[in-house]
């Protein structure tokens, strides 16, 4: 639905808040950039689910395995059938969203956070290795530090191309919690759990009495954009993913990945079920993921114990402030003094594939299904003006004018990678609409 854009009436706006719809990674980063751009202006977040709420099929992202490609424990991944992985989003368009003026924004932001806060940020530096069954890779990989194309002599027999680079992985719950703390310090006016059936609900007396008449709304509702009245974007669709969590650290042709996290977990995946809305775990898919993960990282059955011990040691060192000891232990691995993990990927001789899968099954602590909020045509990042005329408002319609709505959704599987870049773009649209420099 589109409405003609009209100039906003000149009027004091200090009492009229900006409302962000959605409290996922897109909504939280957008709210942060709004508050940093206009510190004296109230910002409220309204969402069906908050990061602290129990997980459901509609709040899948904090439990999914993540590839922070925008953005050195060892991470391994393989792609089948082209560069794929971002359906309905041309690789060049993806690169444009992940970078701005030639800079990989999200990677820069998150890397700075990791350097400043270390494991507390929920981020961890890794050496990322990507194997491909064809001979292409995503252009965005070349923006990362230490990027190199691997020699054919070091590739597995089934791979035709490979690259490696310095990247980051994330423990999502920790990262979202750190963003909430940051929002509090920036002076967020409020974060409210509220289900909106339509944008027109923003004119209800309950909303207006609690937060006031919004001057602008940023729609970061992801899959919710399909059903939100006033938006009802039927080009949004789910891409089902199933992953496995094993403590301590699909289908053939899908992307396969092994991702360690700073909390000691290792995430194995994955699948891409376009339009598949089945929220139940499929055991046959689980075994397929385990088998594929072992093919690219055959020593995985040993890695969890090592990663768990290392994560515990890191936490102990940090808590006891044994900075000098930690620096001494890790200086040879990481000149920055931050943790760079090692995952043993050797496999004991004589260990069969079946035995390895069975051994790995014993380490599984969670199986999770989530849904990537994909959109035909890619991310929607644009402004429209919404005419709201509620009778309950203590303002004349002429005084209110149109409410600016900026859409920021449809990121698919690239939301974590592109969040800070699209947040900047969305805030730029809001500021332009309101005449803020």
UniProtKB/TrEMBL annotation:
One of its GO terms (biological process) is D-amino acid catabolic process. GO terms for molecular function: D-amino-acid oxidase activity; FAD binding. Keywords: FAD, Flavoprotein, Oxidoreductase. Signal peptide: none annotated. One of its GO terms (cellular component) is cytoplasm. It holds the Pfam family DAO. Residues 305-333 have a biased composition (Low complexity). Residues 18-302 form the FAD dependent oxidoreductase domain. This is FAD dependent oxidoreductase domain-containing protein. Its cofactor is FAD. Belongs to the DAMOX/DASOX family. Residues 305-353 are annotated as: Disordered. It comes from Saitozyma podzolica.
């Amino acid at each position: 639905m589109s409405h003609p854009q009209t100039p906003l009436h000149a009027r004091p706006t200090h009492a009229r808040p900006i409302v962000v719809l959605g409290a996922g990674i897109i909504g939280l980063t957008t709210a942060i950039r709004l508050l940093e751009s206009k510190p004296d202006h109230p910002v409220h977040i309204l969402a069906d689910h908050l990061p602290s709420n129990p997980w459901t099929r509609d709040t899948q992202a904090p439990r999914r395995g993540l590839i922070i490609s925008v953005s050195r424990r060892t991470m391994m991944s393989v792609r089948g059938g082209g560069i794929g992985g971002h359906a309905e989003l041309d690789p060049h368009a993806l690169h444009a969203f992940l970078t701005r003026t030639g800079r990989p924004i999200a990677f820069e932001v998150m890397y700075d956070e990791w350097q400043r806060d270390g494991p507390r940020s929920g981020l961890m530096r890794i050496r990322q290795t990507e194997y491909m069954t064809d001979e292409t890779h995503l252009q965005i990989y070349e923006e990362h530090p230490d990027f190199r194309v691997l020699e054919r002599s070091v590739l597995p027999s089934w791979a035709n191309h490979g690259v490696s680079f310095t990247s980051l992985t994330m423990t999502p719950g920790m990262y979202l919690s750190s963003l909430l703390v940051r929002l509090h310090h920036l002076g967020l006016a409020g974060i409210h759990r509220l289900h909106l059936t339509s944008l027109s609900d923003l004119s209800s007396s309950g909303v207006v009495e609690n937060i006031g008449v919004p001057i602008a709304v940023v729609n970061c509702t992801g899959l919710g954009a399909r059903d939100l009245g006033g938006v009802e974007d039927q080009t949004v669709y789910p891409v089902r993913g199933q992953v496995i969590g094993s403590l301590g650290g699909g289908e053939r042709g899908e992307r396969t990945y092994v991702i360690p996290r700073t909390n000691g977990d290792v995430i194995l995946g994955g699948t891409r079920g376009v339009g598949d809305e089945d929220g139940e775990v499929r055991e046959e898919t689980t075994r397929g993921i385990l088998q594929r993960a072992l093919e690219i990282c055959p020593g995985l059955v040993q890695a969890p114990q090592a990663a768990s011990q290392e994560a515990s040691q890191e936490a102990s060192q940090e808590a006891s402030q044994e900075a000098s000891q930690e620096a001494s232990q890790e200086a040879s691995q990481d000149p920055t003094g931050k943790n760079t993990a090692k995952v043993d990927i050797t496999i004991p001789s004589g260990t069969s594939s079946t035995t390895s899968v069975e051994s790995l099954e014993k380490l599984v602590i969670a199986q999770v299904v989530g849904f990537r909020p994909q959109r035909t045509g890619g991310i929607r990042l644009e402004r429209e003006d919404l005419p709201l005329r509620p009778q309950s408002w203590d303002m004349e319609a002429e005084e209110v004018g149109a409410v600016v709505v900026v859409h920021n959704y449809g990121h698919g599987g690239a939301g974590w990678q592109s969040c800070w870049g699209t947040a900047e773009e969305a805030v730029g649209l809001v500021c332009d609409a309101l005449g803020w420099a």
